[in-house]
Design a protein that fits this description.
136 residues, Ribosomal Protein S5, domain 2, 5 strands, elongated
Amino acid sequence: MSTVTEKKTAESVGTGRRKTSVARVRMRAGSGRFVVNGRPFDEYFAIGKDRTTALEPLAATGKLESVDLTITCSGGGTTGQGGACKLGVARALLAFDPSVEEVLRKASMMTRDSRMKERKKYGFRGARRGTQFSKR
């Protein structure tokens, strides 16, 4: 029996979270191909603001054209997923190239945005909004 040896490519992984969204990012050296949930990056993030947010760490370090990304997103909406991708890409980039840590930290891309939705309280219509006052 002959054994087949597979060529393994160096791949770094990063997980990002924002609001209720989770993004798992796989990064490898390549030519700038980005895929999110099996779809092209531009097709998945239709809003330009979410696209720029997700790729901010790559733009700050100048590695937009030198890596390929495969991202799996779940939960939340497009804004939360864009923010989760930003943190995931930054963490994967740090594992891929440790020399960019100072640039990412100065741009505050290594800290998770801890803001979450406040829970609804009983007797209220939302987290803080009460019912409308009626005189009669």
